[in-house]
Amino acid sequence: MRSPRRCSRNGCPRQAVATLTYVYHESTAVVGPLAAFAEPHTYDLCEPHARSLTAPRGWDVVRHEGEFEPPPPTTDDLVALAEAVREAARPAPPRPDEAEFDPHTGQQTGRRGHLRVIPPSH
Prior knowledge:
The protein has helices at residues 47-52, 75-89, and strands spanning 18-23, 28-33, 42-45, 60-63, 99-101, 108-112, 115-117. With 122 residues, it is of the alpha+beta class.
């Protein structure tokens, strides 16, 4: 399953809720709601880092004044979750070292995936 986008700050494990974009020609840092897609020249931030961001001297910070909400799950997230649930519900394959008895011969047999190993008859 795909994990949610994380904060770009080193060592921060929190989920991103805001996007930071630098507008270099205007010396402005813009912190807004999380962008729909991660872009190469933007930074995803968690709420504490989005609220406490400071810009270099001479720069302005334009900050979203509303609440930063985590993004709703996308269709891809829901499909990945459904696949993970299906995978977890599948029965575990038998271990190769587990032995079975063949009812026709009464001999011990082994299983490897969809194949059965039958010992040679003497």
